[in-house]
Amino acid sequence: MAVRQEEANRRELVNDLLHGRSDLGRLAERAERFGLRLAAGYTVAVAVADEPYLEGAPASHRVLRELTGRYDDRTLLLAARDGRLVCIASDGEAPVLTAFTELALRPGPGYTAARRVATGRRHAGTGGIVRSYEEALAALEYAQRLKLPAQRLRAEELLVFPVLMRDRSAMADLVRTVLGPLTAARGGARPLMETITVQAEAGYVNAETARRLGLSVRALGYRLERIRDLTGYDPADALHRYTLETAVMGARLLGWPDQPL
Q1: Strand 123-124 vs strand 84-90: parallel, antiparallel, or unpaired?
Q2: Please, are residues 101 and 45 in contact by the beta-carbon 8 Å criterion?
């Protein structure tokens, strides 16, 4: 009963820390019982899987058991929240986050493996914990919308996307202006948008782009001509490339063409 009560208290503390609206004095006092100094810096990592993480479920329990077996449990907090697995690590505990990521992605046979793990940036204080948590959630959301293949995400590597989406109306205008004409293509805008994305990922090497798309180089050339003719932007021009890539990223973030702008 004592162990269960301590786990319940720890879960409640994690929820209050991530909620960010509890009384700070009382929150700091409760945190000190677990050896946490809220004035220090903290980093939050969040794991998501195809199945929701539940408190006390085998996958969550295994990660907690492994982490507390390797590290001082006064330097970390772990809990399931909203179907995700959340790890809060204090200053100087980068190995904890690395171990959390590895355990979540590769928990072993019979356990639910995470699809992605995102880590926020380090911030100080209780407000810093909330901020790091929100950064990790935002990284997961961007990765899902953009269909990024990476399993490990760091918020600082995705800072360009909040900048792009800060002016939503301007981004919508860019997508309409640059990519709107692609809807007139046979098959719609999607194949040509995919071509823009894959060509960028392939470093603008046509042979590699064609291989990844399952096309002949000649068929790829036809697609690139269609993009140029319909939009007026030439993928062979450096500035035009940047505009096309940015517009495609914005379209994915806005859900276009499935969602109207």
Answers
A1: unpaired
A2: yes
Looking up tokens 């935002």, which residue turns up?
138
Digit-coded pLDDT (tens) for 17-40? 777 656 666 666 666 666 666 667
Same domain as 186, residue 137:
no
Q: What integer pLDDT is reported at residue 13 of this predicted model? A: 73
83-108 pLDDT tens trace: 999 998 887 667 889 999 999 999 88
Helix (H) or strand (E) holding 152: strand 152-154
Residue where a domain terminates, one of 134, 157, 180: 157
SS3 89: strand
Could you give the percent of the chain with pLDDT greater than 90? Answer: 52
The count of structural domains within the chain is: 2
Q: Is 114 helix (H, G, I), strand (E, B) or coil?
A: strand
Pairing of strands 41-49, 123-124: antiparallel
- Tell me the HSE value of 123 on the side-chain side, using a 13 A CA sphere: 19
**Predicted structure pTM score:** 0.80
- Domain extent, residue 217, equals 163-254
Identify any residues that bridge with 49 across adjacent strands, giving them in sequence order. Answer: 114
Contact 153, 118 (CB under 8 A): yes
Which DSSP string corresponds to 77-107? EEEEETTEEEEEEETT-HHHHHHHHHHHH--
Nearest-angstrom CA–CA distance, 180 and 260: 11
| Residues 44 and 137 reside in one and the same domain | yes
Over residues 124-177, the pLDDT tens digits come to 877 788 899 999 999 999 999 888 888 999 999 998 888 888 899 999 999 999
